[in-house]
From TrEMBL:
Belongs to the peptidase C14B family. GO terms for biological process: proteolysis. This is Peptidase C14 caspase domain-containing protein. Residues 106-377 form the Peptidase C14 caspase domain. Coiled coil: none annotated. It comes from the Eukaryota. GO terms for molecular function: cysteine-type endopeptidase activity. Transmembrane segments: none annotated. It comes from Dendrobium nobile (Orchid). One of its GO terms (cellular component) is cytoplasm.
Amino acid sequence: MFCRSRIEPCGVCGNRVLVPPLSSTLYCNACHTTTSLQSSHDSAARPRHGPFRHARGWLRGMFSNGGFGSTGSVGSSSSDYRQLAHEDSGRSAMNWPASFPTDRAKKRAVLVGVSYSFKSYQLRGTVNDVKCMRYFLCEKFQFPNDSILMLTEEERDPKRLPTKENIRAAMRWLVWGNQPGDSLVFHFSGHGSQKLDLSGDEVDGYAETLCPVDYEDKGVILDDELNATLVRPLRSGVKLHAIIDSCHSGTVLDLPYLCRTSRVGSFQWEDHTPKSGAFKGTSGGLAICISGCDDSQSAQDTQTLSGSAITGAMIYSLIYAVETDPGTTYGRLLSNMRSVIRGADAFVGFTGPVASFLKRVLSYGIKQEPQLSASETFDIYRKPFLL
């Protein structure tokens, strides 16, 4: 049986906060303090050691009257984040940490894998995701190795750990000084969550978030901030691909358009422009997000690459789809990724760990469908998938 969220009082001001089931601390947005929780609930928490012990949607409901896990109000307007991004864009490149790549190649990437080591909700495949993505980008799309910034808990440099502050800095580094012809990639593998949206900008009433390794103390990263930092600064002639393998990630970049496809292949772009009129597009460039699942779904780990190595199902399906269908379009890519996860005929001649994984996925009734969103609409069956 899955454990449930609970109400806990702030140890300083007494404000009642809704706490996710796996949290050992709570952050109070009313007085901006962190309270350690009693361990009596720990026995109910179950670590996610693989795809089939994952409590689906365990972070959903991560909000309170003032907002849990964020140093800012849930209802903060996107203009606040745009101002922050504008201020950061003027910083000198000399302000980046010394361990950040100095190569400003036309192709560059930030790859983030959060394991949440020694936590009950630890993930085992995220570092492998990052390593696979780096190899994939370098070998398949000729990204220079020196222009790829990796943030994982295996890094020795404290500035390259996947903390909230470091992920923010890495995102700013990625888009800083972008010029026509640049191809940028932001990849995140880790936990995702949802928070109640009080601004009225979200179609489903929830804001999507990413969880840094220190999210319990420092808070999550809201989709508003991701949009303002990664999307808004993109100039004409620049393209960004965000590859997000986390739960509730369908619209995590807050892009204006979400592509809906049917089982027979037809597609339609949904307009997700906020009712408030807040601008969520670029400054002339193109932003595309490929995410592991819909906003209401959970993402999974699987043992399919490098023998027994664990990776995210979404990352595996992406690499598999590109490798088996050279010159693929966005439409075929999305369809093939979903076929891999659903266990369709795409597995002819590709047996072993994959077949075993799919049998268990189907028996557990896990539903995960990769999603495509963008800053502008296009024909997904004509536009080639190029990084």
